[in-house]
Amino acid sequence: MFFTEIFRMALGSLRTNKLRSALTMLGVAIGVFSVIGVMTALSAIQGSIETGLSFLGSNIFQFAKYPVINNGGNAEEKYRNRKDISLDNANEFIRLMGGEANAIALKVFDGGRPISNGPVTLQGRTVVGTNEYFLTANSYAIAYGRNISPDDVELGRNVTVVGASIQKKLFPSQSALGKTVKVNSKPYTIIGVLDEKGSSFGNSQDDLVLVPLTKFFSDFGHENRTVNIAIQSTSQATYNDTLDKAIGAMRTARGLKLGQDNDFEIYSNDTLLTAFAQVADTVRVGAFVVSVIALLAAGIGIMNIMLVSVTERTREIGVRKAIGARKFDIIKQFLIEAVLLSELGGLAGIAAGVLGGNGVALAFDMSMVFPWLWAGTGLLVCSMIGIGFGSYPAWKAASLHPIEALRYE
Prior knowledge:
This protein is an alpha+beta fold. The strands form two sheets. A six-stranded mixed barrel has the order 2-3-10-5-7-6.
């Protein structure tokens, strides 16, 4: 028999039992969806990080109280019990570095603060107490006006540099320079507006309110505040030397003795990527395990439906064998039916997974992707499931004796 004829007969058999076939394919689709959806979302997130990471500028590493990703449990308790990195620690660190670095940015954050201009109030903005090096450390630029200056920090002036979205919402048709806004009821004069930077993971990077570090502590208090310190080496060639000296200076500033572990975290763009990759790998393994279990269950379902089909079509098999159908033809027909069930379910799972994964990407304002490798792997696995779990029913059908099959009622 020609392959096209066997394929047509297999499709006809599946159409005869539409509901049963659909439910069997659904099991395969769920298994494939679980892995394709996760892989699509992770690919979109990872691609966004790798192509647009701007958490830190170039040749920059950072010291902080907490790590980039906190795994919780006992580790979280350890980080929480650390002393905050105080402003005195930060200033002592700068003194010990003695001009060794190109830039040292000090940053302390306070989220969820309101900023207002007359009757218009914007809720939930992030206030950053910092110095003149924040722009360098975080890859921002001034659109117009000026940056915070060393004098602003030293004298604790009530000035601010605001993000692009804040300027657009509070002063949509005029320049924001020289205007007074209230940040958590404290008056600040706008001296500069940041260039627009866009969103990252669904969060706007243009809602920042930068104020001099000393003024931040004066208005918002010192309690439960920890300073992040970002250091930029003079070049990539001096990066490692600067890092080594900075670690020593930070240990000294924190009063650590020889043999004591660091009570601060060190990270850079590379460590951010590595930390995300570790989390992504864990999620991938979890998704793979779930999909394997679901696909095994779906494979058992395929074997079950094919065995039922063999029983129902015993007489048909006897007729075909009586008029000359070979054993191999019967095997091919039932294997093709099993593979069709598996592949159609796999295609539905891939489509749903890609849509679901890219839905997550769009929700976080990331570029959509199509996981070609995982989609191809999914179809290959579906074929293997169809062949593996359809082999026994196909062999059972082909092994029926034509006389006994014709007698079956």
